[in-house]
Amino acid sequence: QVLLVESGGGSVQAGGSLTLSCAASGQTYLTYCMAWFRRAPGKEREGVATIYTNPDTTYYSDSVKGRFTISKDSEKNTVYLQMNSLKPEDTAVYFCARAEGPCYNLGSRRFHEDAWRYWGQGTQVTVSS
Known about the structure:
By secondary structure, the chain is mainly beta. It is built from no helices and 11 strands. The chain has strands at about 5, 10-15, 20-25, 35-40, 45-50, 55-60, 70-75, 80-85, 90-100, 120, 125-129. Strands 2, 4, 5, 6, 9, 10 and 11 form a 7-stranded mixed beta sheet that branches.
């Protein structure tokens, strides 16, 4: 059984920073694509970033590119999302997700919800102006 648990959400003023964590248990995540998604109030869930090992590759949505950084700690089985220069429009519930294979298998579907098998419960991020 795969379990994903997010933490690190909270409230911050615009321009501030937060780091989210996703602790994975169960099957090792090293051979699977991992991602962060978010769902803003009244909107659909959208993809934010993906990460894969071997090759070590990352991918970002245009809305967060240059401000957010996805990373991993293999020993801790944890994926992180460092969020800098936060904006009010970044306010959302942030979810961690795991696919069934490598990121390159997803192709253009990388940010389609149905391409991801396992999901965490989410952590709230609120950015005030």
